[in-house]
TrEMBL record:
Belongs to the ADIP family. Residues 82-183, 215-249 form a coiled coil. It comes from Salix viminalis. This is Afadin-and alpha-actinin-binding protein. It holds the Pfam family ADIP. Keywords: Coiled coil. The keyword Ligase does not apply.
Length: 423
C-alpha cells in the first residue's frame, strides 16, 4: 500500500496508542500506525523496509521473516558485542585497578623521594653554609697572608736598602782605612829610608862617615820637596785650566739664545767681542798674573757675571709665575756643580799633599790647613747640598796656595755660587 511522509510522522499519533500498557506497543486500534513506525524504524537502522504485515502472500511473509532473522542476527551480534565489551570493560577495570595501585606505589615513592630531596636539600644547605664559612675563613687567611707577604717584602726591601747603605759605608770605611794605611806606609817608608841611610855595617860609630850620610839625607829631602813642588805646580795648572773652562762655559751660557741677558748688553758685547781673548776679557790670562795685579779684574768680572746671572734668574722667575715649581736643576747648573765638585776634590787632594809634605819639611806656616775641615769635606766630596756650598769659600780661604791669585779666584767664584744657590 502506498505511504507518504505524513504517514511516518509519529507526533500526530494519539497518546492513547502508547499508554495502553507498560509493555504494549500495538493493539487492534493502531496496527496500521505501528506498521508504519516499524517500517520507518527499520529503514532508519538499515533493515529491509516496506514490510507488509497485513498481506497474506508468501513474498511479504518471506520479507518479514528475513527482517525478523536480520533482527535476530543483530541481536546475537549485540549480545556478543556486549559480552566482549563487558570482558574488555573488566580487563580495563583490572588494568585501571592495577594502574591505580601502581600510581599509589609511585606516589609513595615520590613522597619518599621528596623526603629524601628535602633531607638532601637541608644537608646541602648546611654543607653550603659550611663551605661559605670555610671560603670566608680561607679568604681572611689569604688576605692575612698577602699582608704578611707585603710586609715581608717591605721589610726585605728595607733590609736590602740598609744592607746597600751598610755596604757603601763599609766600602767608604775600607777606602778610608786603605788610605790611612797607605799614608802610614808612606810615613813608615820615609822613616825606613832615613834609617837605612843612617845604618852602617858593623854598627861601629867610630867608622861612620857622618858628613856624607847627612849630605845624602838632605839631598833626598830636597829631591822629595822638588818632586812635591812639581806635583803642586801640575795641580795648579789643572786648576787654572778648570777655571778657564768654567769661564768659557759661563760665556757660552751668556751667548746662548735662551741664556743671553737683555739688560746687560755691555757685558755680553765684551764677552763676544773677541773669541781669541781670555775668558776674562784680556789677551793675557789673568790667572798667570801676580795676585795684586789680577785681583780687581777677577773680582769685577766675576761679580758682573754673577749679577747678570741673577738678573736672568729674576727674569725667568717672573716669566714662569703660576707654573709648578720643580726642584730639578738645569744641565748647565749640573755641569757647573760637577765642575765645582771636581775642583773641590782637586783642592782637597792638593791641600792634603801640601799639608803632609810641609809638616815634615817644616816649611813656613802659611801652608797650614784646617785638617778637621778637610777631613769632613773629603767624606762628602761627591755631594752638593746647600749647607756644603755655603762653607766652600771658607774652605778655600783655609788653604794657602803658592799662587794667591788662584786662591782668590776660587774664593770669589764659590762666594758667588753660594749667592746663586741661596737665591
Amino acid at each position: 500500500m502506498p505511504t507518504s511522509d505524513n504517514d511516518f510522522d509519529l507526533s500526530s499519533s494519539p497518546a492513547s496508542a502508547f499508554s495502553i500498557g507498560e509493555y504494549t506497543f500495538a493493539d487492534v486500534n493502531n496496527l496500521e500506525h505501528c506498521a508504519k513506525y516499524l517500517n520507518q524504524t527499520l529503514v532508519t537502522f538499515g533493515f529491509p523496509s516496506s514490510l507488509d504485515l497485513f498481506a497474506n502472500d508468501p513474498v511479504s511473509t518471506a520479507r518479514t521473516c528475513n527482517c525478523i532473522y536480520s533482527l535476530l542476527q543483530q541481536r546475537q551480534r549485540d549480545v556478543e558485542f556486549r559480552e566482549s565489551a563487558n570482558e574488555q570493560r573488566q580487563r580495563l577495570l583490572s588494568d585501571i585497578s592495577r594502574l591505580e595501585a601502581k600510581v599509589e606505589r609511585l606516589e609513595s615513592q615520590i613522597q619518599a623521594k621528596d623526603r629524601e630531596i628535602a633531607t638532601i636539600t637541608r644537608t646541602e644547605a648546611k654543607a653550603t653554609a659550611a663551605f661559605k664559612a670555610q671560603i670566608e675563613k680561607l679568604q681572611q687567611e689569604r688576605d692575612e697572608f698577602q699582608r704578611m707577604v707585603i710586609g715581608n717584602q717591605q721589610v726585605r726591601t728595607q733590609q736590602i736598602h740598609e744592607m746597600k747603605k751598610k755596604e757603601k759605608e763599609y766600602i767608604k770605611l775600607q777606602e778610608r782605612l786603605n788610605q790611612v794605611l797607605m799614608e802610614k806606609k808612606k810615613e813608615s817608608r820615609s822613616g825606613m829610608e832615613i834609617m837605612n841611610l843612617l845604618q852602617k855595617e858593623g854598627r861601629q860609630r867610630g867608622t861612620w862617615n857622618g858628613k856624607k850620610a847627612d849630605n845624602d839625607f838632605y839631598k833626598k829631602i830636597v829631591d822629595a820637596c822638588e818632586a812635591k813642588n812639581q806635583e803642586l805646580m801640575a795641580e795648579n795648572n789643572d786648576l787654572r785650566a778648570l777655571l778657564r773652562s768654567m769661564q768659557v762655559d759661563m760665556r757660552d751660557f751668556f751667548n746662548a739664545p735662551n741664556g743671553s741677558s737683555k739688560q746687560s748688553p755691555p757685558v755680553n758685547e765684551r764677552l763676544v767681542a773677541d773669541p781669541t781673548q781670555s775668558p776674562l776679557g784680556g789677551r793675557t790670562d789673568v790667572f798667570d798674573l801676580p795676585f795684586h795685579m789680577a785681583r780687581d779684574q777677577i773680582e769685577e768680572s766675576l761679580r758682573t757675571k754673577m749679577s747678570s746671572i741673577k738678573e736672568r734668574m729674576v727674569q725667568l722667575q717672573d716669566a714662569q709665575k703660576g707654573a709648578e715649581v720643580t726642584s730639578e736643576a738645569t744641565e748647565r747648573e749640573l755641569e757647573l756643580e760637577a765642575q765645582l765638585v771636581e775642583a773641590r776634590s782637586i783642592i782637597q787632594e792638593q791641600a792634603s799633599i801640601m799639608s803632609k809634605h810641609l809638616t815634615k819639611s817644616e816649611r813656613p806656616r802659611e801652608y797650614e790647613i784646617n785638617v778637621v775641615d778637610l777631613h769632613l769635606r773629603r767624606e762628602d766630596r761627591f755631594s752638593w747640598p746647600h749647607s756644603k756650598v755655603k762653607g766652600s769659600s771658607k774652605y778655600v780661604n783655609s788653604v794657602h796656595f803658592p799662587n794667591q791669585n788662584i786662591q782668590y779666584g776660587l774664593s770669589c767664584l764659590l762666594q758667588n755660587l753660594e749667592s746663586i744657590v741661596e737665591y
